[in-house]
User: What shape does this take?
Amino acid sequence: MSIDYGTVFENNSLSGKQRAFIEVQNRCPLCNHQLEIKVVSHVDAVTLREEALCPSCEVPARVRDHKLQ
Ligand SMILES: [Zn+2]
Assistant: This one.
């Protein structure tokens, strides 16, 4: 399961500032490569883990947990 951020952003009304912020957040802090966002189910089934990985550095740049309930 993966999130297509491009599609998500097309379909809602983010301001230019918010788009710029997200663009920065989705780039590797080390090499500025576009990060690959991966979402995996957690063991407890109510948490989704979002992992941002730089395919160039092969370093996980960000891991975020999202509670579904
Ligand atoms: Zn990188």
Notes: The chain has two helices and three strands. Strands lie at 36-41, 47-54, 59-67.
